[in-house]
Amino acid sequence: MSSPALLSRYSRLPELSGAAYLAATAVGRLPITMVPLAVLALVTSASGSVAVGGLASACAALGEAAGVPVVGAVADRRGQRGTLLTVVVLHLLAVAALFAALAGPAGWPVLAAAACVGLTLPSVSGFSRARWLRMTPRAEEQRTAFAFEGTVDEAAFILGPALVGLVGVLAGPAGALVVAAALVAVFVTAFACHRTHRVTAPRPVAHGDVRPRVPWAVAGPVAGMLAMGTVFGATQTGVTAAAEAGGSASAGALVYAVMAVGSTATTLCLVLVPERIGLALRWAACGAGVLVGSALLVAAAGHGLLALSGAVLVTGLFVGPGLVTISTSAAALVAAERGAFVMALLNSGVVLGVATGAAVGGALSESSGPAAGLALVAVAAAVLTALPLPRLVRRARARGAQARS
Fold first, then answer.
1. So what's the architecture of 18-202 in CATH?
2. Is pLDDT above 90 for 86?
3. Which CATH number is 214-405 given?
């Protein structure tokens, strides 16, 4: 497919949703990538303790992982607009409570307030994917929309932390959390009130009918997102440790950002993959690619930042397509009426994976060196690759039985 044809695929999206929607969903997801780091910086600065700041950041991340699916489930039943507007108000109150708690001793009130900040943080990306499930009548359009979502997610995970750092330098640690709260107030509200919220309005359930349930099969995609999040977290800490060993810890963030370069390019081009290549095969191929990249990461750990950047770039080529493929696989398993909840579950899987990868990878890097921390990426990639294999085997057997009959 030519470049003009590729662009025509994406030009269809504003026709379906409106340009204002694309802006609201893009900027509205920045806070979810900013808050854990902003909480870390603020609490560390206010308490004078990195340990307390780390605990507060972990509480915010765990609160987010727990709250996002609950909010998604409520939105499926009550509608997105009212649910999101309520959550925006609760989030602003939680941020105010955190500032109030920091005026006193750094104890459990600070940690509880940080958890509430995360608990009430709205997941625009999950809600947006749920809307696309209703707004894209054709499979080709849905693939394009999910590729756009994956690309915007990649950009948010790079720009969000960078914005925290920039605002922190210009306005202090408190400024970063205030900016994140302002983005929630403005852009999440705009997203909530955009006309597209009507497509996810709950439909009345006829007498005797039951609401569609979420099948247990979505556990596979959730596990896939957990593995992918572990790849992110372990890569972050392993690359940072390798950069620190090379004498420049701050360069680790720049090396990690290289992942987004390859990931963005391949995610945008994912719509070119022929339909005949099924989701399970794409998933396995992406996992295998990440596994190859992880081997390169381990090998490059002690050979300078240039070699490490190359390994990170190769790994990133398969990360974005993997995220999109897993999300699409989950969407194919459920009714659109449960889309917000399922997409929220996937988001929580990534958050928990990042926390796990960062904690375990950091401990391994500190005790046994960067290569040991980056080896965790290989473990997560192996799990990621293995998850779709049973489905591929079943399909191969079915085709074999059909050919023999």
1. Up-down Bundle (1.20)
2. yes
3. 1.20.1250.20
